[in-house]
Amino acid sequence: MFHHIKGKITEVNPAYVIIETAGIGYEVNITLNTFSELSKLKEAFLYLLPIFKEDSQTLFGFADKREREIFSKLLSVSGVGGNTARVILSSLSADEAINAIASENVGLLKSVKGIGAKTAQRIIVDLKDKVGGVEALGAEGGMSNIASEAVAALEVLGYNSRQTEKVILNLQKENPQQSLESLIKQALNKL
For tag attachment on the chain, is the N or C end more exposed, with fewer CB atoms within 10 Å? Predict the structure, then answer.
């Protein structure tokens, strides 16, 4: 099975990249987030996820493992194929997709072109319990030091860590510059 590819970029555009390695050019479908990472590079390292069908073999590439993992989880949802999952991860970052699923934010998922209310709800129902492991991987990247301290303080007070993290992340998005004390007070009002 394919895990990753490393090689010279011979062509890159928002939909795919051609990576040459060992004299062979591989066409790898990418998200806009991965395109942003690759657009200035001459060489690439991408984590791969192949999709094999009766009539096609398609490679999808990702700049980081977390994006590949959430892509894989999206593929497990009925009605979500490779292209739909790619559109979701082109419109939302991996963190935004994880947080939208974990916080049951149907509106954010519906804002993605081609995703209706039923598909958004199906994604949430199918993946809400499955994004926990991905969410834990992203906790350091998604939270500032102040947010991490606020979560720790609320855990000491006996609040559920997963629920606390969601509330803190949402509050942090609303106002990223607030103090630790303010963040804790607002979180206590919402918990």
Answer: N
47 and 74 both lie in a single domain: no
Number of domains in the chain: 3
Do 123 and 71 lie in one domain? The reply is yes
Instruction: Encode the chain (191 residues) as per-residue pLDDT tens digits.
Output: 788 999 999 999 999 999 999 999 999 999 999 999 898 899 999 999 999 988 889 999 999 888 999 999 999 999 899 999 999 999 988 888 888 898 888 888 998 988 999 999 999 999 988 876 554 444 444 556 677 778 777 877 888 777 788 888 888 778 777 788 888 888 888 87
What is the 3-state secondary structure of 148-185? HHHHHHHHHCCCCHHHHHHHHHHHHHHCCCCCHHHHHH
Question: Range of 177's domain?
Answer: 143-190
Instruction: Report the distance separating Cα 84 and Cα 98, nearest Å.
Output: 16
